[in-house]
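Researcher: Sequence recovery benchmark, item below. Answer with residues only.
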């Protein structure tokens, strides 16, 4: 299940079957060589599907990848290679910050450790809703998941633990906003769009689309409009202190095709990397040792 900047849930269950029927056989789209603007991405080309999938026979190797996606057919590297078939929904994914991946689908919470040939299930489907991020601890990594609310689970055995002090995501009880904080102390979040509502309290007009905000301990460094009236919602999928994966989508329907952007705060570059529905993305490995200065996109 895909949820947008405020993790939109209304109507998403009903949209699942529609999305599977309409997009289940479509390929993910790859970025062109030129970098599109934030508000009007250029046309993208289509990634070719591999002739055969590799269902975990070889050890997972993310060393040549910058990001990984989890979509309707499984987990793919940034070059389009399908490395593991899954059973969405939800198609959520996060890096374990040790060279591996953590993901959730309809069968539960899974940990695909670096060097392993297949993932290990650490949570049952009826216990887990969606993985958001993973925090390092002195013992095993801890996954932040959303079930009836925010929950922290040890990846060693799936047991519930206290929130670690270095959680990369600050989350409210209603998931109204996710604030990501990297190892270098920078934080990033996407604002909710401002909308005009009709007499039935339904959104009738976009007044101001989402903004991308980046801040440090001294205050806000970047505050820019990231969306437009056609793609008013923005969702941050991962932030490593230097780069941000953020997707843009329309206010309705609940699970639309979205444009995924890669924003680099070291250069100010922002480019579309693919378009997809029902998909999440994450970087690989640990946060880079980058200290700025921040260049606004």
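Model:
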């Amino acid at each position: 299940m895909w949820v947008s900047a405020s993790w939109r849930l209304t109507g998403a269950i009903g949209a699942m079957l529609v999305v599977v029927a309409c997009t289940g056989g479509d390929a993910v789209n790859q970025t062109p060589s030129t970098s599109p603007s934030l508000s009007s991405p250029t046309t993208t080309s289509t990634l070719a599907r591999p002739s055969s999938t590799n269902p975990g026979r070889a050890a997972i190797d993310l060393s040549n990848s910058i990001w990984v996606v989890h979509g309707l057919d499984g987990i793919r590297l940034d070059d389009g290679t399908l490395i593991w078939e899954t059973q969405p929904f939800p198609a959520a994914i996060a890096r374990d910050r040790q060279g591996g991946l953590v993901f959730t689908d309809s069968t539960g919470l899974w940990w695909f450790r670096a060097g392993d040939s297949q993932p290990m299930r650490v949570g049952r489907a009826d216990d887990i809703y969606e993985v958001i991020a993973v925090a390092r601890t002195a013992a095993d990594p801890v996954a932040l998941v959303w079930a009836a609310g925010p929950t922290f689970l040890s990846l060693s055995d799936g047991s519930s633990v206290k929130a670690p002090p270095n959680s990369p995501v600050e989350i409210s009880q209603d998931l109204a906003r996710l604030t990501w904080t990297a190892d270098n102390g920078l934080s990033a979040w996407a604002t909710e769009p401002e909308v005009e509502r009709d007499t039935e309290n339904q959104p009738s007009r976009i007044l101001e689309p989402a903004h991308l905000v980046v801040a440090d301990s001294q205050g806000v460094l970047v505050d820019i409009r990231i969306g437009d009236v056609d793609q008013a919602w923005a969702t941050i999928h991962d932030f490593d202190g230097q780069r941000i994966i953020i997707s843009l989508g329309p206010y309705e329907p609940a699970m639309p095709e979205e444009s995924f952007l890669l924003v680099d705060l070291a250069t100010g570059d922002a480019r579309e990397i693919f378009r997809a529905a029902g998909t999440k993305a994450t970087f690989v490995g640990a946060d880079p040792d980058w200290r700025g200065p921040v260049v606004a996109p």
